[in-house]
Amino acid sequence: MSAYVVAHVTISDRDTYRLYEAGFMEILQQFRGEVCAVDDAEEVLEGSPLGTRTVILRFTDKPAALDWYHSKAYQQLAQHRFKSSSADIVVIQGLT
Known about the structure:
By secondary structure, the protein is α+β, with helices and mostly antiparallel strands. The protein is built from 3 helices and 4 strands; from the N terminus they run E-H-E-E-H-H-E. The protein has a single domain (about 5-95), classed as Alpha-Beta Plaits (2-Layer Sandwich). Helix content is about 40%, strand content about 30%.
């Protein structure tokens, strides 16, 4: 069953965030993840805006998503994101 990582990111330093973006796809692909959507101009239908960017990633299953997130390679790369943004990130199960 697929799993999705949904991130609401507020980017405060675009130059440093670009360092994160530069290495992102290589690591994501190592864990067979794929980008489903990235939007810097989402339209809020209800509630309050959650960040300046929303990202949705798909993985084959929840363990694969967690392996990617907790991997040494991703956590090293994520240091650039930690320095340049704040985020709310969840992993959710897809439907069968």
